[in-house]
Amino acid sequence: MLRRTIPMLILAASGILLVVAYFSPFTTSWSETVLGWFNVLAAVAFVLGAGNLLAVNLELVSARRAGWAYALITLLSFAAMFVFGLFKIGVVPNPDHPNVYFAGDYESSQSAFGWVYEYIFSPLTSTMFALLAFYVASAAFRAFRAKNIEAILLLSTAFIVLIAQTAGGMFLTGWIPEDSMFAFLRFDWMKVGITEYIQTAGMRAITIGIALGIAATSLRLILGLDKSYLSKN
Whole-model pTM? Predict the structure, then answer.
């Protein structure tokens, strides 16, 4: 019973405290205290996440299961970055404290951590996003079928924005004068109308819907109506 009641009480008290602190200027320090507790819990969660990462990948490597080589690379990368960041290898000392080795910034480009991040991690991330663009384009080509009016509108909008981003848009409609009555037929003008007006209105509606959903979910959690986060045992 206590395993379910205590977490609910902690959640309700924290939620009510943060809501009251947001609207009341006299309780601002309370919210800062709770946020400090949150930072401590987040740090503990990072430790648990790192332990889970090590446990899962060590099991894959020891059992030689499918993909164990990738798990080994993950473990080696984790260990290397952990050592680089913890011991600040290659870090230039802070000018204000030149005799204190650990006073420098571990993310500086001179450090091993910063070098790996800038010259290995960032290029790999850019490569993954570049490959993702081809996957998205392929999936969009297969998914966009003009079967109904909604699909036609989606396909037409995507085509206009895509063409406007390339030289083909200027080649096809760039000859239309910008001060003429037919300037709205230019791909660059249509793209501006779609991205700055139609898309902005849609994103604001989605944002408002998300905010209302978050508020409703938070209220259910504070009132104890939603117990999905509790253990079933």
Answer: 0.58
